[in-house]
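User: Could you check the structure of this?
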Amino acid sequence: MNDNELLSWLEKAKLGDESAFQLVYQATHQDVYRTVAFLVYNKQDIEDIVNEVYMSMWRTFQTYDPSRPFRFWLHGITVRLVQDWKRKTWRRIRLFERNRRMTCEHFDGTDKAVLQFEMQHELFSLVRQLSYKLRVVVILRYFHDYALEEIADILQIPVGTVKSRHYLAMKELRKRIEMTGGDAYVH
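Assistant: Sure, the predicted structure tokens are below.
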């Protein structure tokens, strides 16, 4: 389903047609879910963020500019919500760590099972090891085929920063592929 068709269904949904919203959800859910899953490791967090994306989409549809692609707008919402979630998680971790130090409880924050969650391909595994800032550029560039200028727009950062992060991500991926002896090719 193309963006224009999605837009007309979303307009109907805003007028109260639940089946229209369900159609938009079905047409975009898999794409949104995969994007979040590439950026977040915990399955429950992924599902929570995806739900937030659709609630946010519903609440902010009035701000959507129909002259721009709908999925571009939806990916912007998705990335911003993942960034918000990461910020909140980081705050919780810092509070937890402060409390741990105060009570001298032992905490092992590395859960190997969570870090290895749903990694089916070697390249995806390597991408997931990148820092969030590099990973989000790779996901938007190669998974969603956005131009560097569009990525800058979604992330609301200068295009030069996107180019730099893209370069660093590719350099890091090449290095990791060489270390693992993998056959994957990264341009």
